[in-house]
Amino acid sequence: MLPTQLAKLPRSARIWCTTFVLIFGMPGTLLAADLQITDARIRLLPGDIPAAGYFTLTNTGETGTTLIGADSSAFDNVTIHQSVSQDGISSMQHVEQLTVAAGELVELAPGGYHLMLMKRKHPIAVGDEIEVTLLLDNGQQQNVKFRAGAPTTQ
Amino acid sequence: MRQWIIPVFVSLWLMGCGEQTWQTKDISGLMPPLAFDLVDENGNDVTADQFLGKSTLLFFGFTHCPDVCPTTLARLDAVIQRLEETYRDDIQVLFVSVDPRRDNPATLSAYTNAFGLQFTGLTGDKAALDELTRRYRVTYGYGEEDSNGNYDVSHSSAVFAFNEQGEARVLIRDSDPMDAVAADIKRLADQ
Question: At which positions is Cu cation bound (chain B) (predicted)?
Answer without folding.
Answer: 65, 69, 155
